[in-house]
Write a structure and sequence with these properties.
124 residues; mainly beta; seven-stranded mixed sheet; four-stranded antiparallel sheet; 11 strands; 0% helix; 49% strand; globular
């Protein structure tokens, strides 16, 4: 079974930065499809960013220009650098993975494995 562990969440003021990290295990000889999602209480889980099978980063509109996703296939670590954080970015952030590579999507339904989440709180 695939285990995903997120880290790096915390509390920051608006305009600040945080870097989230997700470690996937066990090691694999193929490439995981991976992405970041976030969810607030009472809301559906929403996509933040994901990596395509070609290695390109895809960002949802609310985070474009502020967040940077990176996947280290050798270390099996997915990171999310979040700059210029806004109060509306406050949420529980989840790392997701799937074994469907190269058929990697960016929707909740495209991922079979999820981490426990790490909380991000942005104050104004």
């Amino acid at each position: 079974d695939i285990k995903l562990v997120e880290s790096g969440g915390g509390s920051v003021q608006a305009g600040g930065s945080l870097t989230l990290s997700c470690k996937a295990s066990p090691p694999t000889y193929s490439t995981y499809c991976m992405g970041w999602f976030r969810q607030t209480a009472g809301q559906e889980r929403e996509a933040v960013a994901h990596v395509t099978s070609g290695g390109s980063a895809v960002y949802e509109d609310p985070v474009k220009g502020r967040f940077t996703i990176a996947q280290d296939n050798n270390a099996q670590i997915l990171s999310l650098r979040m700059n210029d954080l806004k109060p509306e970015d406050s949420a529980t952030y989840y790392c997701a993975a799937d074994l469907g590579w190269p058929f990697c999507g960016g929707k909740v339904a495209d991922f079979a494995y999820w981490g426990q989440g790490t909380q991000v709180a942005v104050s104004s």
